[in-house]
Design goal:
- This protein folds into two domains: 194 residues; 73 residues, no CATH class.
- Helix content is 74%, strand content 2%.
- It contains ten helices and three strands.
- It has a three-stranded antiparallel β-sheet with strand order 1-3-2.
- Helix 9 crosses helix 10.
- It is elongated and about 100 Å long.
- The protein starts with 8 loop residues before the first helix and ends with a strand.
- The mean pLDDT is 80.
Length: 293
């Protein structure tokens, strides 16, 4: 199963980079969650359940995130990014299942305060982690639903007054959270796509500004830019260079007799042949019409 099979390359890379920037926030949230559990549950259940198990889970997830964070300047390939996000998604979902099971297991072992803590803890951090790691998409929603489900399960396992009201209150926040997550992710993806399209158009405009559309040779503007640069270089190095002007004989009759479309084909063929002449040593430009340099 692939979580990011249909995601575009641009959005995939942007989500990955955004997640790397959020690693410090995720680590701080994880450490705070672990610290609170240590304080509240340490006197009620065995340390292996109150401290060791969440600590191991946090170390696994944090080690993964820190490794990617330290290597954030590598600019990995799209396939590697997709694989990393898939691994993170699987780990995130497994963490959700583990927390769900652990909450149900710990519930009868804790007192009333512990019951309220488990409900509040799962609800709060279900929102926090899902929002922080919302760029993971389906995995974030799955984790959120698992955490909220564990909180609601704890409510109905206990002897709470107004259990339905507590569940309704959580569900109101849950719906708002899901809408916010969905809107945030959608807007992020749209922004990435719009930025990529703008960047692509800008590059295309820059190419067209310096390249002849018909022959694909550098155009008149680029010719004069290069002449200025070569003149400046020649003054510094006391070197020289040559400029030659080429025009096609009897090109006008070809246009007049056979039409402009045939003339365009002639220019295209001339451009191809000129581009193949000693590449790297001689550069050809189309100045306009049938004139080349």
């Amino acid at each position: 199963m692939s979580f990011f099979k249909t995601t575009s390359h641009e959005v995939l890379r942007a989500r990955y980079n955004s997640l790397l920037e959020d690693v410090p926030v995720a680590l701080f949230t994880a450490i705070s969650a672990l610290s609170i559990q240590m304080i509240v549950l340490n006197d009620q259940v065995h340390w292996s359940l109150s401290i060791a198990t969440p600590l191991i889970r946090m170390l696994i997830v944090c080690s993964l995130l820190l490794y990617w964070f330290w290597h954030r300047d590598e600019q990995p390939s799209i396939d590697k990014i997709r694989k990393r996000l898939e691994i993170a998604s699987i780990v995130f979902i497994l963490a959700g299942f583990f927390t769900f099971w652990r909450s149900i297991y710990l519930y009868p072992l804790t007192d009333t305060f512990g019951h309220y803590f488990l409900i509040f803890h799962n609800t709060l951090y279900g929102f926090c982690f899902a929002f922080i790691l919302s760029k993971l998409g389906p995995a974030a929603y799955a984790y959120n639903l698992l955490m909220i489900s564990s909180a609601i399960a704890c409510i109905y396992r206990g002897d709470f007054e107004h259990a339905h009201l507590m569940t309704l209150l959580i569900m109101v926040f849950e719906v708002g959270m899901l809408i916010t997550m969905r809107g945030s992710t959608t807007m992020f993806d749209k922004w990435v796509n719009a930025t990529f399209e703008t960047h692509t158009l800008l590059k295309e405009n820059q190419r067209l500004a310096n390249q002849d559309v018909l022959t694909q040779l550098p155009n008149r503007r680029q010719f004069f830019v290069q002449v200025e640069q070569q003149l400046a270089l020649a003054r510094q190095t006391q070197d020289c260079f040559a400029v030659g002007i080429l025009d096609l004989d009897n090109f006008k009759p070809v246009n007049d007799v056979h039409g402009h479309h045939i003339g365009d084909l002639v220019l295209i063929e001339v451009g191809k042949r000129l581009a193949q002449v000693r590449p790297g040593q001689v550069q050809f430009y189309r100045l306009g019409g049938d004139e080349f340099a």
